[in-house]
## 1
Amino acid sequence: MRSFLDLVEVSSDDIQEILTLSRRGGKVFSEGDSVALVFEKPSLRTRNSCEVAVKRLGGHPVYIQNSEVGIDKRESAEDIARTLATYHRVIAARVFRHDVLDRMVSATDRIGRKLPIINLLSDRSHPCQAIADLLTISDVMSLGNSFSGIKIAYVGDSNNVAFSLAVAALKVGATVSIASPNEYSFDQSSRDYLETLGEVFFTLSPKEALAGASVVYSDTWISMGEENEAEVRRAIFSPNYQVDAELMASANSNAVFMHCLPAHRGEEVTAEVFEANAQTIFAQAGNRLDAFQGVLRYCFA
Ligand code: CP
Ligand code: NVA
C-alpha cells in the first residue's frame, strides 16, 4: 500500500509499471470499499474519470466539494484526512497547496490509519495527468513502453502540468524542451532537478523548443487560483507563447499537439491547431480513466 503524490517520488520502473497497470484488467476493491474524492477546485475530467475508475475497480466513489469540508478553514487537513480514513480505503484530493497532501499522509500515519493518498492536482504537480499523457503519446506514436528518441516540447507557463509532464517524460527516456517567458519559467532548483533526470532544454523561444519535436504541449496561462493575475499573465504570454499553425510548422511534420484541458482558444492555442488535433486531445482526456485505474492498482500492488 502506498501513496501517489508526486512523480518525483516514483522511480522510472514504477512509472512504466503504472503504464502497464493502466491497461490491465482486474479489480482492486471489495464489496463495501469506498474512495474519497476531495476537490478544493473545480474539475471535469478528473472528477469523472476518477469516479468511473473507482466504480470499474469494484469500489464506491464519494465526491466531496471544498464547500462541504473547507480545508484548513472549517477543519484542518489533518482532521479531514483522519476522519475520511475511517470510512474509505483511499483519499484522492485536488488541493491548492501541495503540502496539504503531505500533511494528510503524516496525520493518517500518526494514528495508524495509513491509506493511499493520491494527488489529483496541486500547485506543484498533476501526476495522474502525466500518466495519461504518456499513455496518449505511446498510443498515438505506437511506442509501446519505449519513449527514447521522442522529443516533447512544452510551450507556456512552467506550471504543475508542465512539471509532472517533464518528470514523467524524462524518467521514461524522452527528451523534453520547455519554452516559457522568464517570469513564468521553472526556478533554478526545479531546473537542476529536471537536468538530473535526462535530456531537458529550457529556452525563451517556442520556435527553438519545437525544433525536432514530435509532441507539442500547452496548458492554460492562468491556472486555478491565479485568476487575479490574469491580465498581467496574458500581457506576458501573448502573442509569443500561443501555439498557432506557424509555430507548429517548427516541429516535426507529423507532430501532434496535446493539451490537458480546459483549453482557451485564442490564448495558449489557436482554434485551428486545437481542432486539427482534437482526436489526440480527447483521446488524452479519455486516457485519464485508464491512468487512474493504473494509479489505484499501483497503490495497492
Ligand atoms: N486536465 C484536468 O485535470 O482537467 P479537470 O480540471 O477538468 O479535472
Ligand atoms: N494548470 C492548470 C491545470 C488544470 C487541469 C491548473 O492548475 O489550473
## 2
Amino acid sequence: MYDYLIVGTGLYGAVFAAEAIKKGKKCLLIDKRPHIGGNIYTEKCCGINVHKYGAHIFHTDSERAWNYVNQLVPFNRYTNSPVARYKDELYNLPFNMNTFHALWGVTTPEEAKKIIESQAKEARERIGDNPANLEEQALVLGGKDIYEKLIKGYTEKQWGRRATELPAFIIKRLPFRFIYDNNYFNDAFQGIPIGGYTPLIEKLLEGADIRLNTDFFAAREELSREAEKIIFTGLIDEYFDYCYGPLEYRSLRFETEILDTDNYQGNAVVNYTEYEIPYTRIIEHKHFEEFGSYEKHSDPGKTVITREYPAAWQKGDEPYYPVNNEENNALYEKYKALADESGVFFGGRLGKYKYYDMDDVILDALADTESIL
Ligand code: FAD
Ligand code: UDP
C-alpha cells in the first residue's frame, strides 16, 4: 500500500514525489507516456539533448526555485535570444535597439522612440483609446511596422485566429527595450540543465516506484485501491468525465529531423513571423547546451532541428496550452468545486488549468506539499 498515487511524472508530480519521499512517504507514480518528465522530457540523439516537447528554457526571479533545481543538477548560462525571421529579413527579439536598427536604421534610443511613438499616435488617432482586439492593441502600443512584421503572422498562427478576433489583453504589455540587449527574459536567473531535463526528473524520482505506459483511466479502480491518497496532474475535466463540457486547449505538432550539418541556423530558436509559413519556430537543439561553450558533445557533422506547428486541440490530442480566457476560467472553477469535494488533489498545468512556467510549477508544488504533507 502506497501513501500517494501520483498520476503524471511531469515536473509537478516529480517535485511532489521528492518532497513526499523526504518525509518518509511511499509514492507510486504512473504515466501514460512511455517516459518520465512530461513536457520537459529530453532525449539524446546524435549526442544532442533533444527537447521532445518544444524548447524549454528555465528562467525565474525566484531564488528559491533556482536553488531548488541547481541542487539537483548543474545548469549552464544559456540566455534565450530568439531571432525572428520575416521573409528574408532577420530581427533580434525581444524588441530592442538591435531590432529597431534593423527595422529603420536608427542608432539611438531617441530616434527609435520617435518612430514608435509617431506610428502609435497614427494608430491611436484611427482606433481611439479603447482597442477592441489584439490587432488594435498592438498597433496603439507599437505601431504598424512591428505589428505587421513581427506580431501579426506569428500570433495568428499560434492562436489559430485572426488578430482582430483575439482579445486585446494577450498583448497588453508589449515590452520595448531601448538598449542593445537580446536577452528574451527579464528574470534574474536563467539556464538549461547540462545533460537535459530528464536527469533532473530522475533525481527527483529517486526512491519512487514508477509505472510507465499506464493510463489512470484504464484502471482507475484498481490503481486507486493501491494508495491512501491520489495526486492527479492530468486533465481536470477528463477526471470528471467532461461533465460540464471540455475546457479548451491549444495543441502543437512537432516535426523533428536529423540534418547532415554542424550548424543549421546558428541559433537555438528562430521564430518565423510570416503567416504563410505554417510553423511558428525552428529549434536547433544543440545550441541550448553548446552555445558559447568550447565543450561539444554532439556527433560531428550532425544537428537535430524541430519545427513547431500550432494545432487546434480535440479530445485525445496532447493539450499543450490551457486557453485561460474568461469563459474557460469560469468553467475551470466549476471543475475546481468538484475537485475540492472529491478527496483527490489536483496539481500542475493540467490539474490546475494554468499557463504555468516550470518555476511556477515548482513553487506551487512546494507550497502544496507544505500544506498537504
Ligand atoms: P506535464 O509536463 O504536462 O505532466 C503531466 C504528466 O501527466 C504527463 O507526463 C502526462 O503524460 C501525464 N498524464 C496525464 N494524464 C494522465 C493519465 N490519465 N494517466 C497517466 N498519466 C497521465 N516553461 C518554462 O519555464 N520555460 C519554457 O521555455 C517553457 N516552454 C514550453 C514550451 C512548450 C511547447 C510547452 C507546452 C510548455 C512550455 N513550458 C515552459 C511549460 C512547462 O512545460 C510546464 O510548466 C511543465 O512541464 C508543467 O509540468 P506538469 O507536471 O504540470 O505537466
Ligand atoms: N509573439 C509574437 N511574435 C514573436 C513571439 C511572440 O507576436 O516572434 C507574441 C505571440 O502573440 C505569442 C506571445 O507573444 O503568443 C507570447 O510569446 P512567447 O514566445 O513569449 O510565449 P510562449 O509561446 O512561450 O508561451
